[in-house]
Amino acid sequence: MLIGVTQLISWAVMPFATNLSVIYASRIFGGFAGGGTLSIVPLFVSEISEDRIRGTLGTMLAISCNVGILLGFIISHYVNCWAVTYLALLMCVVYSLGCCFLPESPQYLFVKKKKETTMGDFKEIFEMLSSG
């Protein structure tokens, strides 16, 4: 969720940027958020996924990033830069709110001495994966 908030701040500054250095600072801040996403998401996916689908889910991150970049180029060709900025801001809000509903990973719960909850989460994840 912290990554989403960082990205949200990065895009929220853009409409109020008065000079080029503010835009650079905003993009650097967004770069930290992007780097965090590309390092945290694979860890989370590897902790919650079953062995047989882990590779597919790991690949989805790269595919999603590339499709998102392509869509960004396509959308920005047809709308002005302010609309793109507000659309990106909206996407960051949706991402940040969506992160509130993600469960804690079993590894995190196990480290925090919540073994009972961890075992329940493992059972829930395996039941969900085996039914789908």
Account of the protein in words:
- The chain crosses the membrane at residues 24-45, 57-78, 84-103.
- This is Major facilitator superfamily (MFS) profile domain-containing protein.
- Its main location: membrane.
- One of its GO terms (cellular component) is membrane.
- It comes from Anopheles maculatus.
- The protein has 132 residues and is mainly α.
- The chain has two domains: 1-101, no CATH class; 104-131.
- The chain has helices spanning 2-13, 20-48, 51-78, 81-99, 106-111, 115-131.
- Helix 1 packs antiparallel against helix 2 and helix 1 packs antiparallel against helix 4.
- The radius of gyration is 18 Å and the shape is elongated.
- 9% of the residues are buried.
- The mean pLDDT is 83.
Topology:
Elements (H helix, E strand, L loop, with lengths): L1 H12 L6 H29 L2 H28 L2 H19 L6 H6 L3 H17 L1
Helix pairs in contact: 1-2, 1-4, 2-3
Membrane topology: Multi-pass membrane protein
GO cellular component, one term: membrane
GO molecular function: transmembrane transporter activity
Output mean pLDDT: 83
User: Rounded to an integer, what's the Rg over CA atoms?
Assistant: 18 Å
Q: N-to-C terminal Cα separation, in Å?
A: 27 Å
Point out poorly predicted stretches.
none
Task: Describe the largest sheet.
Answer: none
Number of domains: 2
Structural class: mainly alpha
Any key phrases for this structure?
elongated; 132 residues; membrane; MFS_Trehalose_Transporter; mainly alpha; transmembrane; Major facilitator superfamily (MFS) profile domain-containing protein; 0% strand; transmembrane helix
